[in-house]
Design goal:
By secondary structure, the chain is an all-alpha fold. It is 40% helix and 2% strand. The chain has a domain of 170 residues. It is built from nine helices and two strands; from the N terminus they run ααααββααααα. β1 and β2 form a beta hairpin. The longest helix is centred in the middle third of the chain and has 17 residues. It is globular and about 50 Å long.
């Protein structure tokens, strides 16, 4: 039977992710021995079924995944189909641009679940164009308990705050990170962290940069820790990543 995870996603968990996320450089240069020993193993990565005639180049990423696969997977996981199309397309795009990475759609979905409940935090929704409305902002990164202190870097252009930076959008990028990693997932010539296609592709590129192979424990752990330096966060992402994989297994696969 498919496993529904949407009902289990906690707004409190999303709030905790919003408080400290935004992509961190921690552990990037650490040796394998320096990584915490309590990290979860890398969940198995799953690639989406691609469209029969998979478009290439700057084609919008939502056109890369098979439509029937999207229908079935959205139903099995309760991930909004429009959001799932972005996750799946981002996974397929980085198989072309970062072939060593082997990033599955389920890891991107795990991030999306923990960060903002797939763009539904506090009543937000993703429209058919891919924009998340109302826009999702994390708390001001003003050095309060549990928060980094990051003074404004974008004059409030992305986060509406001219004093402190805030993580923004469905995948919660801080403005300075978006400045170098932002992507144009829908091919409209704009890199918008509040657009699910752009944000999902940026998250995928962020996880895959540096010749990372996320099918290995070290590669996956470093990727998630670079996104958020919390060990507990890494476990949450691992849990949802694996649950989304399990939700899409056929009955025969599940019985093995």
């Amino acid at each position: 039977m498919p496993v529904s995870t949407k009902a289990r996603l906690s707004p409190l968990l999303a709030l905790a992710a919003l408080a400290v996320s935004g992509c961190s450089a921690s552990f990037q240069g650490a040796s394998r021995e320096d990584l915490p020993t309590t990290l979860p193993a890398a969940p198995e990565q799953v690639l989406p079924a691609s469209a029969q005639e998979s478009p290439a180049g700057q084609t919008p990423i939502t056109e890369l995944a098979d439509s029937s696969w999207l229908d079935a997977t959205a139903e099995a996981t309760d991930i909004p189909r429009r959001v799932l199309a972005a996750y799946a397309g981002a996974s397929l795009r980085v198989t072309q641009t970062y072939p060593q990475c082997q990033l599955g759609w389920n890891t991107i979905a795990g991030l999306g679940a923990v960060e903002t409940l797939h763009g539904t935090y506090q009543g937000a929704n993703t429209d058919e164009s891919g924009l998340v409305r109302p826009k999702i902002y994390g708390p001001a990164l003003d050095g309060s308990p549990g928060l980094m202190a990051i003074e404004d870097t974008d004059d409030g252009a992305l986060d509406g705050d001219k004093e402190w930076d805030r993580a923004v959008g469905p995948l919660q990028f801080i403005p300075s990170t978006w400045d170098y990693i932002g992507q144009d997932g829908n091919g409209d010539g704009i890199k918008d962290p509040h657009h699910i296609d752009d944000a999902a592709l940026a998250a995928a590129v962020y996880l895959c940069q540096g010749q990372r192979d996320v099918t290995t424990d070290e590669g996956w752990q470093r990727g998630i820790l670079s996104y958020n330096r919390s060990i507990a966060y890494t476990h949450h992402v691992a849990t949802y990543t694996e649950e989304y994989r399990q939700a899409t297994l056929s009955e025969s696969e599940a019985a093995e």
